[in-house]
Amino acid sequence: MVVVIPTNKSVEAFEGLHLYHGDISNCSMRVRMTLIEKGLPWTSHHLDLKKKENISDDYFGINPNGLVPTLVDNGVVHIESNDIIDYLDETYDGPSLRPKDPDREAEMLEWLKLAGSIHVPAVKPYVYATRIAKKVKKTEEEEAKYNALQQNNELKAFHAKHAQGKAFSDDDVTKAIGILEECFTKLDTTLVSRTWVMGEEFSLADISWIPLHHVLIGCDFPFDQYPNIQRWAAAFHAKPSFQEGVLKWCPDFSKV
């Protein structure tokens, strides 16, 4: 669980669950889906990432990385989407989204960890290079503002690669594709004899990976080579949490 002490103290007065999120953010999609699956009421604070609404003193005062999502639970600030969805499932009543068996729960948490670990080295480079970089290009003033606020060196280095019209290199994209192919091959193999990632019950493991599929398919990642993932995708498209937590906000990532 990642809890931060905000410098923007206004959020410490919040009652209930408040979510700062972006419509096109795959990480935000995870949390929206989890809130819906758990049947939890929440207050929406939507930030338009294409308008760089997250690059502000106020928001960096809530989330020091300037990323979405951020969950504020009765004044306590939680960041990192996979930690947030695990926290929500552990903390709140409603349908459980984890296996009861400790060993299988540990396996589920490894799927969350893997999804988080490939975000900056693979998912973001592929998505930015193929679809989003031009949509979120910063002005010189916005670049200066971001660099002044951002203290995370990994994120600074990532955004420097597409600053001021620069493009990700072929090597960056090739490395990203290699990581994604390895991970989705593992997921496809896991789904050979399973309806969902952990078996016959929908879990946080599915919620962690569904948004990656949605965003990457919108960036023309070739999922046709993964038949079990295609079957899994057909199943989750029917779920209300996907329709309300993902499609309602971002119906087609290819049109972002």
Would you kindly provide a written description of the structure presented here, covering whatever features stand out?
- α5 crosses α8.
- With 256 residues, this protein is α+β, with helices and mostly antiparallel strands.
- The mean pLDDT is 96.
- The protein has helices at 26-38, 57-60, 81-91, 102-117, 119-132, 140-149, 153-160, 170-190, 204-217, 227-236, 240-247; strands at residues 2-4, 17-21, 43-46, 70-73, 76-79.
- The chain has 2 domains: 2-91, 3-Layer(aba) Sandwich (Glutaredoxin); 102-255, Glutathione S-transferase Yfyf (Class Pi), Chain A, domain 2.
Give me the CATH architecture of the largest domain, please.
Up-down Bundle
Distance from N terminus to C terminus (CA atoms, Å) equals 31 Å
Number of structurally distinct domains = 2
Lateral strand order in the biggest sheet: 1-5-4-2-3
Overall pLDDT level = 96
Query: So what's the oligomer here?
Result: single chain
Shape: globular
Report the structural category.
alpha+beta
What share of residues is helical?
A: 40-55%
Number of distinct helices: 11
Task: Give the gist of this structure.
With 256 residues, this protein is of the alpha+beta class. Helix content is 50%, strand content 8%. It contains 11 helices and 5 strands, in the order ββαβαββααααααααα.
Task: Summarize the SSE layout with pairings.
Blueprint: E1 2-4, E2 17-21, H1 26-38, E3 43-46, H2 57-60, E4 70-73, E5 76-79, H3 81-91, H4 102-117, H5 119-132, H6 140-149, H7 153-160, H8 170-190, H9 204-217, H10 227-236, H11 240-247
Parallel strand pairs: 2-3
Antiparallel strand pairs: 1-5, 2-4, 4-5
